[in-house]
Design goal:
It contains 11 helices and 5 strands. By secondary structure, it is an alpha+beta fold. The chain folds into 4 domains: 173 residues, BirA Bifunctional Protein, domain 2 (2-Layer Sandwich), CATH 3.30.930.30; 94 residues; 88 residues; 35 residues. The chain has a 5-stranded antiparallel beta sheet with strand order 1-3-5-4-2, sandwiched between helices. The longest helix has 89 residues. The radius of gyration is 63 Å and the shape is rod-shaped. The N and C termini lie far apart (138 Å).
């Protein structure tokens, strides 16, 4: 976008329309054999750019006096990159530039548009469109449209035209400016030469980096082997820690469960019956386990008692036999003292065998035998008392 005062309008008209007498700096950028391919979207006024502008200012009723250096014309150059126009048909190209013209007419007023011409005799097809910057309230003011509003203008072009044609939005806030082709070619030539020098430097740097990279790759292989070994060891250690944690948690859970059951059993024995479902379940399990333990213990005791009782009966029977033998021996001593003395003192071998016959076959002490006898006697007395009570009860109820 460029703004022009009165003095620049005539040469811009010559350049846009390629009119006779036009001499342009950087002429070598124009292929005159292709100038015939240039075409108009909005034809220029027959009366000329300058006269058209003055008439439009009067027609709009601009009241304020126009200064000699006032901006009377604004010119847009609208295009895209070279790749955009490759393999594009003339009809499609024309449709694109018509959309650009429609945008300018809609934004700045169709009545203010002076001309719109497409140049195809330069590197890339582009549109030159010129208009008078008359505001909606009929003032001549380029500042109204452009001061501080260029970013908004770029966005508007993208929204109305760019999106439709799949063009990318220019960088917001970019300070890039349009340059004339001659300056552009010089810049490109210098940039190309600089790029060649930079490319040579880059090639040399690349070789050096390649050698360094080979060294790094070898170092990396060695490091990978060490890392793999360390990783393997670390994984093994982590697995061992994980297994140990699982075992620890299992032991803690079992310990907590045993503590819960021990407390539940104690509460149950103390008569503290739980009310919660979980606590009650723990008490039932604890009592069941305790009952099973007691059953096993009773079974063992019952067996021990049975064995003791059997030994007691054997000892009792043997004691009865020994008593009979003792009485017989006392009777012999009393009635036949001479025969007894002769037998006892002169035939000790025979007598010793007789004495050994009465040796107790069990190792139970005498006190335990007496205890068993007392227990048996107590049970007999208890049974007799019970029977007497039942008989008394039957007698009472029969009355």
């Amino acid at each position: 976008m460029k703004k022009y005062p009165q003095g620049d309008i005539a040469k811009i008209a010559l350049e846009n329309e390629r009119q006779e007498g036009y001499v342009r700096i950087g002429k070598e950028t124009i292929d005159t054999s292709k100038t015939k391919n240039n075409y108009l979207i909005v034809s220029p006024p027959e009366i000329g750019y300058a006269e058209f502008i003055d008439q439009r200012i009067k027609q709009a009723g601009v009241k304020r006096k126009v200064k000699d250096d006032a901006i009377k014309m604004v010119s847009f150059v609208m295009t895209s990159d070279k790749e955009f126009f490759e393999n594009m048909s003339p009809q499609t190209e024309r449709a694109f530039f018509i959309d650009c013209v429609k945008f300018v007419k809609k934004r700045y007023g169709e009545e203010n548009v002076i001309s719109a011409v497409v140049h195809k005799d330069e590197t890339t097809p582009h549109l030159h469109i010129n208009f008078v910057p008359i505001t909606p309230d009929n003032r001549l003011s380029a500042k109204y449209y452009f001061d501080g509003k260029l970013a908004e203008l770029q966005t508007a072009v993208y929204e109305d035209v760019g999106k439709k044609w799949n063009l990318a939005r220019g960088k917001v806030g970019s300070s890039a400016k349009h340059v004339d082709p001659k300056t552009y070619n010089k810049v490109v030539k210098q940039a190309t030469e600089d790029a060649k020098v930079q490319n040579e430097v880059l090639i040399e740097a690349n070789d050096c980096m390649a050698r360094q990279l080979d060294d790094k790759i070898q170092q990396n292989k060695d490091l990978q082997e060490v890392t793999a070994d360390m990783t393997k060891r670390l994984d093994k250690t982590l697995q061992e820690l994980s297994d140990a944690k699982v075992e620890r948690d299992k032991l803690i859970a079992e310990r907590d469960k045993e503590e819960n059951y021990s407390q539940a059993l104690k509460d149950a024995k103390d008569g503290k019956i739980a009310h919660g479902k979980k606590e009650l379940k723990e008490q039932v399990i604890a009592l069941t386990v305790e009952n099973k333990r007691l059953e096993n213990e009773n079974s063992i005791l019952a067996k021990d008692n049975g064995d003791l009782f059997n030994e007691y009966k054997k000892a009792k029977a043997f004691e009865e036999k020994a008593k009979v033998a003792k009485n017989a021996m006392f009777a012999v001593r009393e009635r036949e003292p001479e025969a007894f003395a002769r037998t006892f003192f002169k035939a000790t071998g025979i007598m010793q065998a007789f004495v050994n016959m009465f040796t107790a076959p069990i190792t139970l002490p005498r006190s335990r035998i007496r205890e068993i006898e007392d227990e048996v006697e107590f049970e007999k007395q208890k049974e007799k008392a019970k029977q007497a009570k039942e008989n008394a009860s039957k007698y009472y109820w029969s009355k």
